[in-house]
Amino acid sequence: MQIAVGGCLAQKDQGAIVEKAPWVDVVFGTHNMGSLPVLLERARHNREAQVEILESLEVFPSTLPTKRESAYAAWVSISVGCNNTCTFCIVPSLRGKEKDRRPGDILAEVQALVDDGAIEVTLLGQNVNSYGVEFGDRQAFGKLLRAMGEIDGLERVRFTSPHPAAFTDDVIAAMAETPNVMPSLHMPLQSGSDGILKAMRRSYRSARFLGILDRVRERMPDAAITTDIIVGFPGETEDDFADTLRVVEQSRFSSAFTFQYSIRPGTPAATMEGQLPKEVVQERYDRLIALQERISLEENRAQIGRTVEVLVAAGEGKKDAETHRPSGRAEDNRLVHFALPAGVEEPRPGDVVTVRVTSAAPHFLIADSAVAPVAADSDRLFAVRRTRAGDAWDRRQAESCGVPASAPAATGGAPRAVGLGMPTVRPL
Ligand code: SF4
């Protein structure tokens, strides 16, 4: 076995890692993931730890052999790095300027994933909707979304995370007009105060942010919108925080990832005046959580009675065994726990079930329509669509038990290496 440590922290603490953990074979940075196989081989040959950090990415490492955790869903990187300079973020100094992957490479990877059984793909980038800035096409992200719509067998497309400053109407149109782009959007707000957004060097203001949400909902009324918010940024006053609460109230997020600001060494915000005491940050954070929990519950309750298509997931519901409800994600990415009719075989991860929402909590929906209709006069509802992704999951299970499994027909029976996720090490 060999051990490699990579990423932002490895890049920052490179010397310390081999000093503190002499059993580590390779330390690599964010710009040279593509060199990993060579570094591992060199470490093995020289019997010595290899530390290699590049200052900038020369080419996007599109050809790494990879392994993906899920048979039915995959993450596909479309860009790395970021041209923004948010003052709380370490990415610009560690990951460098944005590098965009060529559209042809992305589409080839997605097609290969689909051929391998995936039906859901999430496009990834630090600033995913500024995709194209490197090769000079400001509408490249919208075009890429539309191209996803042309891939046969790809049922669900998502992306994360877009930046509000670069969120243009052609992207909203592409989302609304491409049937396999899902009605969900995760767009970081960070703060509702224009003064704090300025101090964060986030180049949009709250009115623009709210305007984007209005236009998204105009075209996709059922879109579930989620966000990231930082509480207690240096200099945040009670009035600034009240602006955040106001924007959160108006935005009606279905959920939010909330963070208490904490100093990240190496970022401009780390040395700003006005760092807030922990108890002030905690008190504001608690108020924000209470508000968002209320909104999440209200928004989820509004789903009761809706029929939803749920992509069955593995490992999404922590209490599935206890409650006898499998779990998955609705098209809008809400977590749904659903009941099975008596005597029915459990659907496989990757299959799609149609159920009706019967109750709600802030962080999930319950769909017991198979056994308990919403109203006395409504029918019970439960339908399963067995998918290629479910077949792929079956094949993986068989392989993990040591049973040779046939490759999908789309590959002509040949095993296929796909994806740009975690590199795998081939036996030498
Ligand atoms: Fe960091 Fe995102 Fe800001 Fe880029 S846009 S600097 S990745 S927070």
List keywords for this structure.
428 residues; alpha/beta; 20 strands; disordered C terminus; binds iron/sulfur cluster
What does this molecule look like?
- This protein is of the alpha/beta class and 428 residues long.
- It has 13 helices and 20 strands.
- The chain has helices spanning 8-12, 14-20, 36-46, 91-95, 103-115, 140-148, 169-177, 194-199, 206-219, 238-251, 278-301, 320-323, 388-400; strands spanning 4-6, 26-28, 50-52, 66-67, 73-77, 79-80, 99-100, 120-124, 156-160, 184-186, 224-231, 255-260, 307-312, 327-329, 335-338, 352-356, 359-361, 364-367, 383-385, 422-423.
- The strands form 6 sheets. A 7-stranded mixed β-sheet has the order 17-18-15-14-13-16-19, covered by helices on one side.
- Strand 17 and strand 18 (364-367) form a beta hairpin.
- Helix 7 (169-177) runs parallel beside helix 9.
- The longest helix is centred in the last third of the chain and has 24 residues, at 278-301.
- The protein is globular and about 65 Å long.
- It binds iron/sulfur cluster.
- Iron/sulfur cluster (SF4) binds at residues 82, 84-86, 89, 91-92, 126-127, 163.
